[in-house]
Amino acid sequence: MSAAVPARILIGVTADVSVGLLAGLPQTLAAAGWDVHVVSSPGERLDALSAAPGVTVHPLPMAREIDLRRDLRGLREWMRLIRRIRPDVVFVGTPKAALLGITAARILGVRTRVYHLRGLRLETATGTMRRILTMMERLTIRLSTRTLAVSPSLRDRVLALGLARAPRVVVLGRGSSNGVDVERFTPDTRAADVDSLDPQVPVIGFVGRLNHDKGLEVLADACRLLDEEGVVHQLLIVGGVDGAELTAFAQLHRSPIVLGAVADTSGYYPLMRALCLPTLREGFPNVVLEASATGVAVVTTDATGAVDSVIPERTGLIVPAGDAAELAVALRRVLEAPDLAARLGAAGRDFVVENFGRAGVQSAVADFLRGERDRGRR
Q1: 9 sits in which H/E element
Q2: 73-150-84 Cα angle (round to 5)
Q3: How do residues 219-268 score in pLDDT, each as one tens digit?
Q4: Alpha carbons 273 and 317: distance in angstroms, whole number
Q5: Phi, psi of 153 (to 5 degrees)
Q6: What is the pTM of this model?
Q7: Pairing of strands 35-40, 8-12
């Protein structure tokens, strides 16, 4: 790669909040000699990234939901941006940015167009919406030169749904969208202060967006079963608050402690006996990696993406997605057997350090993008 004329890459996500999914990657690519440009809807995270050496940011409003008028305007803006930047590589994730960015890049003849597939919203959609989302995914993948899926099961799901042919979809190593900072999330991390927690009662924790796809209703049903069986526990919920998603917990013996969104989740994992992610769909769940890196046991599901995040019975427990009874059984195991929870957490730390450290994941992504660029030039 010439130092005089660095390769230029345009990285895109839809919403400013999703810039967090890129943490450190633009800087890693800039340090490797790329001329890095990042586009998302306007916001504080994008503004903060503008201070990174070698990284240029471009605010471009995009609607996360389908909005034909705004989407056509967004496509025109993407085309203006690509004409101005003239990137060698367009590397875009999240559905709307990917569809608009990959389409614009294909129209304008960008040779290397990589779709960073972090999950399939269509998995939990039904009816007309599912058909629309399926069409969008199929089009985005078809217009890409390569799709980088963040987990083996996500790649398998794409192929099973007939969205792509096998050579077009790849996974790096064991997957992950951006790895985890194993120096920040460690077993020595200082626990946050949460006065409302009872230090004598084991904690089941949930970290993530509060929506249906994360399986919150299933978690509420499982906790009710634990109450009926007399299993003492308390529930800590960390994530953006949507009151409609929390009504399912109203009948629990002990009300959950809901903290809302927090700037730094690292101090909350040490409070937990286990992290529970009862998800119905994922790409690859970052919160599982964070909990495991902290040495905390994980209970999750066999949903796409989540199934790749633990080794069953070694680093965590896996139950069928949507099955509250089986989830209650798994939670009871870790609640009543602290030695089991400790063993799972310790093995989880080793698993994450070996396979999902952020530096290693980002290095693999950088090598992949360089190879795709070189392949596009041939």
Answers
A1: strand 8-12
A2: 35
A3: 999 999 999 999 999 999 998 866 556 888 888 888 899 998 898 999 99
A4: 13
A5: -70, -30
A6: 0.93
A7: parallel
